[in-house]
Amino acid sequence: MDHRCVAWSPPAGIEWLEDDGTDTFEVTYKLKEVDGGTRVTQTSNATLGAAKLLQPIFRAGIGADIAHQLRDLKALLESGGAAR
Question: What are the structural domains, with CATH classification, of the chain?
Fold first, then answer.
């Protein structure tokens, strides 16, 4: 998969374009200072190459994957641990 940074605005956020030749993902991470920490917001827009009938299934899987990744990231950051 090709990953490209398409916008970089520290410390407020970053935007990525991910393309595997069939599907593309536009991913935006926004960072905002809040009392005692930082709020991270991720927005993902996918253009899927799969047949329209299968797209709802793919989108559900993508959503579950993103939720899992964000839970792992939150746990890692809150533990003060290093990434593997």
Answer: 2-79 (3.30.310)
